[in-house]
Design brief:
This protein is of the alpha/beta class. It has 13 helices and 16 strands. The chain is globular.
Amino acid sequence: MKKAHAAFLIPLLLLSGFDCRSAGTSAAENKTEQSPPLPEETTVTLLAAGDNLIHDIIYLAARDGDRYDFDPCYSRIKSIVEKADIAMVNQETALGGTALGLSGYPVFNSPQETGTALANAGFDVVNHASNHTMDRGERAVTATMDFWDGFNEDREEKVLYLGIFRGGEERETKKNIITKNGVSFGFLSYTYGLNGFSLPAGKDWLVGMIDTEVMAREIDALRPDCDVLVVSMHWGNEFRHTVSETQKELAAFLAEHSVDLVIGHHPHVTQPCEVLPRPDGKTLTCYYSLGDFLSHTQTDYSPDTMLGAMAYVTVTKRVLGTESDVSVTGAGVIPTVCHYGKGRRPPFSVYPLWDYTEELAAEHYKSEKISLEYLYRVSREVFGMRMLDRKSFTYTARKFP
């Protein structure tokens, strides 16, 4: 076949006036001249998890003498988290530690070992702006920052904590940016409210609150300093898979200000992912709610509160000469299940749904409502084709090491 094809090509070249004598060199030269150079591509992966909500039963189960060991809670998803270049999580409760007295629902204060376990699991961005941020007052917020600053002191790669600040000047000047493979990610964080608690007088800067005037100023200030702008949003109606009008309005606002990625939480159940157009011709990828990650949220809406999700996002940077372009090129979802046994028996463990079994479902505290069929059905109804199974995730993770 190759010989016949060549024999057909020669008379065609002659008819077109092509000089066969120079064909050996000119063809390659012409091809080089006519084909535009291809851009260099770099892809970075970002994983995001939902609400890490430490009820008292969870920290009591993690107690080991005078310390707390939460590592087993995340052992089932650690290998997934570590495969991402950047991994973030919403730490719903303050890490005020034992010095302030630990507490659960409805006014939380969690062991600081919670933060250590999240870092051990591979998370390197931790959001702290939530409706529970001020549960135990400014002291718990300060203790949370003290913990992270001490934890980061001797680490080459720092854990970024979002949404809480030591002063107005720090908030204006602090740039939460991580650069991986030449792609820079900037992070901001906001919450809709504080469960009736107030910020201290004269300290409106303490927690990132949803205020479009402030948000516009901070987003516009950070936008030129990063390739990808990620905003964490604590918003929406609890226990509702449907997106509220307020969420939609805020998402449109964020698109207008050229945000690339929104990571949403608070409803304690999952909500869809949507891609919105931006005025500059690019798009905003919005995960409205990733549901609960680790929690003991007990309502009539269980087992939906036991079914969470981790966003798995790929971002590609294309560079051609002095020009570059960055865009979200993949937005997948890894459903998760928070498992604990009958009688609320520990350990409390987060599983990827693809590792969860009917046997585990039968052992779950909520076994009368939990089944694999139900968990998969809800995940498909919320996320559709964005759901990743083990095979598709493995392919994605290998394609972009």
